[in-house]
């Protein structure tokens, strides 16, 4: 069973519990890496949106009031330059659709398997990309975004669960973090695409940018079609022998050596079948720790302000006085830093643990968000008017944002998806993951919807606003999140039983289903 968590730090290393034998086989490595590439569609959309909304021809066609405001009033308050509810609806509508679809995806993931949800996500996302690329009016544009959102919702629901169930527990953190890595790669690719499509003569480059989303969608659809199902999913569907064969293949050990893990998976599945209403069971006292984490971790992840920087990066940099090309290039730089820094999480999560990266990343984000606020305040003040931004000053702003992004990339970015996906028992796993995705998308939608208005109203204080949440969530992690490194996913219950606070919610019985001991 897992390591001890007796003090208020909730710390202590994991890995002191049941150790299932298993290797990092080529089969599991390929399955997990390809499966985790489902994050490409999410990342591409985050990166593409801000770049497209900074292209004059796109604004002129779909958001003429914003275009006229930008073109006719060069002295306007930089903070309020892009403040438009319709413009923010274009960006944020995807996340509202993803929220709704994740609830449907919960049933599909449990009933039909993880890879079917991934396949549906890829296909729906592809249709949305085609609609966006061929849009002739705002209705087509928003409807396409909604379909993209449905695709993201299905993928975000199924991919982290798929990888967590396939991966050996000793390598679960690294393999699951490939999902976040693929998100960052998608963002970087989108930033590069935007940089070059903005230069296309004739003003139709935005169609290439939006239509390019079909490429990762096709890739994900093909991958989902050829990937094997997880042993957990096979057992849930009654395919016991296939599940046993798959477990032996992905662990790379003999039939006898997988016996303990296989028996635990079967027992977890039997307990899961007795749960007729997983959504209702989530309210049981024994699941209180997981429920709290499934809500607060994704909510706080978005309240770091990271998506403000990532999907509004070109608009943000343009508002700070960068030219159009310079703003797109600066977004490419932040995207590249995002990818590189995520490798720290991929290789360090299973070595240093989740808590250390969470806390270090939180402290670093806080410091450099405050630094960005100070730099903007000194140059723009409260009026938002600046005649010229010196090159060295621009570089300082970009550097601070890059250091902030790097901290997120190795902490709250990947761990915000990893930790919720690995702490749920099988009987509530799909439902709880839906809550994680729904909360994530709800707060992403909320932040996207109000960001430009908040930038106009709070000015540089917006970065102080987000830094306050970074401080709060770092303290929360320090006291309330136990270390989950090195704990088999079906043995995760022990970390809550040994935590100084959460142990009061966990009954002494080995397990409860629908309120009854099993």
Can you tell me about this structure?
With 518 residues, the chain is mainly alpha-helical. It contains 24 helices and two strands. The protein has a two-stranded antiparallel ribbon. Strand 1 (512-513) and strand 2 (516-517) form a beta hairpin. It is globular, with a radius of gyration of 23 Å. The model is unreliable at 1-17 and 511-518 (pLDDT under 50).
Radius of gyration: 23 Å
Strand content: under 5%
Return the structural class: mainly alpha
**How far apart are the termini?**
19 Å
Oligomer: single chain
* N to C succession of SSEs: HHHHHHHHHHHHHHHHHHHHHHHHEE
Strand order of the largest sheet: 1-2
Give the mean pLDDT.
Answer: 82
Indicate the low-confidence ranges by residue numbers.
1-17, 511-518
Helix content: over 70%
Count of individual beta strands: 2
Outline, from the CA principal axes? globular
Q: How would a crystallographer describe the biggest sheet?
A: 2 strands, antiparallel
Total DSSP helices: 24
List the keywords:
mainly alpha; single chain; two-stranded antiparallel ribbon; 72% helix; 2 strands; 518 residues; globular
What topology emerges from the helices and strands here?
Elements lengths: L25 H11 L2 H14 L3 H7 L1 H9 L12 H28 L1 H20 L4 H29 L5 H26 L7 H7 L2 H13 L4 H6 L3 H12 L7 H15 L4 H4 L6 H15 L3 H6 L1 H7 L4 H29 L1 H27 L10 H19 L2 H12 L2 H33 L2 H20 L12 H5 L14 E2 L2 E2 L1
Helix pairs in contact: 1-7, 1-8, 2-7, 2-8, 3-4, 5-6, 5-7, 5-22, 6-7, 6-9, 6-10, 7-8, 7-21, 7-22, 8-9, 8-18, 8-21, 15-21, 15-22, 17-18, 18-19, 18-20, 19-20, 19-23
Characterize this entry briefly.
By secondary structure, this protein is mostly helical. It contains 24 helices and 2 strands.
């Amino acid at each position: 069973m897992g390591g001890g968590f007796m003090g208020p730090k909730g710390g202590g290393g994991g890995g002191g519990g049941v150790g299932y034998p298993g290797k990092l086989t080529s089969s599991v490595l390929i399955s997990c890496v390809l499966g985790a590439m489902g994050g490409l569609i999410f990342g591409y959309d985050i990166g593409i949106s801000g770049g497209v909304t900074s292209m004059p021809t796109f604004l002129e066609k779909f958001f003429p009031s914003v275009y006229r405001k930008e073109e006719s009033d060069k002295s306007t308050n930089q903070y309020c330059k892009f403040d438009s509810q319709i413009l923010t609806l274009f960006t944020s509508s995807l996340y509202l659709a993803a929220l709704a679809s994740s609830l449907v995806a919960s049933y599909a993931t449990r009933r039909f398997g993880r890879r079917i949800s991934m396949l549906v996500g890829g296909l729906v996302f592809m249709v949305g990309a085609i609609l966006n690329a061929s849009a002739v009016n705002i209705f087509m544009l928003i409807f396409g975004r909604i379909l993209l959102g449905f695709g993201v919702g299905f993928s975000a629901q199924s991919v982290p669960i798929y990888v967590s169930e396939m991966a050996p527990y000793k390598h679960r953190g690294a393999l699951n973090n490939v999902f976040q890595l693929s998100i960052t790669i998608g963002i970087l690719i989108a930033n590069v695409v935007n940089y070059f499509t903005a230069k296309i003569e004739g003003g139709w480059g935005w169609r290439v940018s939006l239509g390019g989303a079909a490429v990762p969608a096709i890739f994900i659809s093909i991958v989902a079609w050829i990937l094997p199902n997880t042993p957990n999913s096979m057992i849930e569907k009654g395919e016991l022998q296939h599940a046993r064969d798959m477990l032996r293949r992905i662990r790379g050990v003999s039939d006898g050596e997988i016996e303990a893990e296989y028996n635990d998976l079967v027992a977890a599945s039997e307990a899961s079948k007795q749960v007729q209403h997983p959504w209702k069971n989530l309210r049981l006292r024994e699941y209180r720790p997981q429920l709290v984490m499934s809500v607060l971790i994704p909510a706080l992840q978005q309240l770091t302000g990271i998506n403000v920087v990532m999907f509004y990066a070109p608009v943000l940099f343009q508002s700070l006085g960068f030219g159009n090309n310079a703003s797109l290039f600066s977004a490419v730089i932040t995207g590249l830093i995002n990818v590189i820094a995520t490798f720290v999480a991929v290789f360090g999560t299973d070595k240093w643990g989740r808590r250390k990266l969470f806390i270090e990343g939180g402290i670093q984000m806080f410091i450099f968000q405050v630094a960005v606020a100070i730099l903007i305040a000194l140059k723009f003040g409260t009026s938002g008017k600046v005649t010229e931004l010196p090159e060295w000053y621009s570089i300082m702003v970009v550097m601070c944002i890059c250091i902030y992004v790097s901290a997120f990339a190795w902490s709250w970015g990947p761990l915000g998806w990893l930790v919720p996906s690995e702490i749920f028992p099988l009987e509530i796993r799909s439902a709880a993951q839906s809550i994680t995705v729904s909360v994530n998308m709800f707060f992403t939608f909320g932040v996207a919807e109000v960001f430009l208005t908040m930038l106009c109203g709070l000015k540089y204080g917006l970065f102080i606003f987000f830094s306050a949440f970074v401080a709060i969530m770092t303290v929360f992690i320090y006291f309330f999140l136990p270390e989950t490194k090195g704990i088999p996913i079906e043995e995760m219950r022990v970390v809550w039983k040994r935590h100084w606070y959460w142990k009061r919610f966990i009954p002494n019985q080995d397990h409860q289903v629908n309120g009854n001991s099993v």
